Amino acid sequence: MTTLPPQPLSPLDGRYRSAVGTLGEHLSEAGLNRARVHVEVEWLIAQTDRGFFGTSPLSAGQQAALRRVVTEFGQPDIDELASLEATTRHDVKAIEYYVRRRLTDLGLDHLAELTHFACTSEDINNLSYAITVRDAVQQVWLPKYRAVIDTIVGLAREHRDAAMLSRTHGQPATPSTMGKELAVFVHRLERIAKQIEATEYLGKFSGATGTFSAHVVAAPDVSWPDVSREFVESLGLTWNPLTTQIESHDWQAELYSRVSHANRVLHNLATDIWTYISLGIFRQIPVAGATGSSTMPHKVNPIRFENAEANLELSSALLDSLAATLVTSRLQRDLTDSSAQRNIGVGFGHSMLALDNIQRGLGEIDLDLDVLAADLDGNWEVLGEAIQTVIRAEVAAGRSSIADPYALLKELTRGRRIGASDLAEFVSGLEIGDDAKQRLLALTPGTYTGIASDLVDRLG
Question: What structural domains and CATH numbers belong to the chain?
Answer without folding.
Answer: 17-117 (1.10.275.10), 122-368 (1.20.200.10), 380-444 (1.10.40.30)
